[in-house]
Amino acid sequence: MYRTGFGYDLHRLEKGRKLVLGGVEVPGREGLAGHSDGDCLTHAVIDALLGAAGEADIGRHFPDTDPRWKGARSVELLAIVMENLRLAGWRVENVDSVVVAEKPLLAPHIPAMKQALAPVLGVGPEALGIKAKTNEGLGLIGKGRAIACWASALLSRRA
Ligand code: MG
Q1: pTM of this structure
Q2: How many angstroms does the Cα of residue 86 sit away from the middle of ligand 1?
Q3: CB of 41 within 8 A of CB of 149?
Q4: Does residue 78 sit in helix, strand or coil?
Q5: CA 158 to centroid of ligand 1, rounded, Å
Q6: Which residue, 9, 48, 62, 151, is most buried by CB atoms nearer than 10 A?
Q7: What residues form DSSP beta bridges with 52?
Q8: What is the CA(32)–ligand 1 centre distance, in A?
Q9: pLDDT tens, 67-82?
């Protein structure tokens, strides 16, 4: 049995925060605001996985009102989700994603993001797509005020 899932997330950029995307710290002047480390790529991937498994979204699993998740590394949240999916018999076939950020240039960091996320997903790097785009200077993403991410996931389970 196969199930697809789709996830989206957007976080505001703020001065004085570390920029963490796909489990990797990317050097830059601003980072993503959030209760956790603000890693909106990992959050979009989590929502794609949860959606494919028919589960409630990331906010229901890790509420931003819960002090347990304050400053949490999103890769650790992903690991918790993956453990629950495995217990339910799911495995990841592949994940694909798009990060839309005007700056900094993300392409050089994509191999490290794959290295950080693929083992947690239990897939090889070839089964994890990460594509970086700009917003052509348009809108709040184009003005560098936020970063948005989309992700899709394909899960399989014995029927
Ligand atoms: Mg988020």
Answers
A1: 0.97
A2: 23
A3: yes
A4: helix
A5: 31
A6: 151
A7: none
A8: 9
A9: 988 889 999 999 999 9
